[in-house]
Amino acid sequence: MGLLLPALAHAQTDFRNLDRGRPFAIEDAIPIERWGLELQAAPLRLERSKLGVTEWGFEPAVAVGFLPRTEFELGLPFIVVPNGATRTASLAGVDLGVLHQLTAESEALPALALRGSVLVPAGVLGPTQAIPQVGVLLTRSFDNAVRVHANAEAALASGTAIGGSLDVHRWSVGMALDRTFVVRSFLVGVEWMLSEPLSQPGKQELTLGAGARWQLDPRWWLDVGAGQHTGASHDGWYLTAGASVAIGWRLGLNRGGR
Predict the structure, then answer these.
(1) Which residues on neighbouring strands pair with residue 197, listed in sequence order?
(2) 18 φ/ψ sector (left φ>0, alpha ψ -120 to 50, else beta)
(3) Residue 172 class from Cβ within 10 Å (0-12 exposed, 13-18 middle, 19+ buried)?
(4) pTM of the complete model
(5) What confidence tens digit (pLDDT) does each residue in 141-173 have?
(6) Which domain holds residue 66?
(7) Which CATH number belongs to the domain containing residue 107 in this structure?
């Protein structure tokens, strides 16, 4: 029984690991532990522009830690957009990604990770060709409760590749700050991000947002977020909500650590 305690303790604090879009666009530089498995249960996103255009989206995803300090991800973005008097609902590509942590956080250094992903064509609202993206992530903790995250990302594709996909940027830079209340298994934070939509070269977009995550039990947690876009085509507000479940902790005990 005692052998399960390290795995359970990790599960109880895993809600601190910020994945992209859950609830922030900015994510931390901490991958899932080796042999861990995390399922994102259909996180929802609602966007409404100042012109009254409403778009829905959700992206069920799975993250797996097959290698030390490395996370593999698979996401299936699905969006619903206006199409004249009707709406079009479709898969908007298949998102494949990997995050590798180069350095763990220490007194001298922040956590540093590299991210690579590719949005593969799929669905009538997906891109017309694959869109590779590369990024750098930093995380620094203060007093074991407050953390600062910084992200920079760039897409290796032209604007002609984009279909109806949401939140695909030519480049983006941003920061987030979160505060954890470990006893209550609760996290709150704010973020800002400056980006250039891939579909609108030369136009910048500023995103300001806030979000929260809280643990329901050692394996389940919920997240909610809200924010506002200004500039480019997404001038308006958005809401997000989702749930996650973590499994595979016992398997990790038999295979070794990170």
Answers:
(1) 169
(2) beta
(3) buried
(4) 0.87
(5) 998 799 999 999 999 887 666 655 556 889 999
(6) 2-255
(7) 2.40.160.40
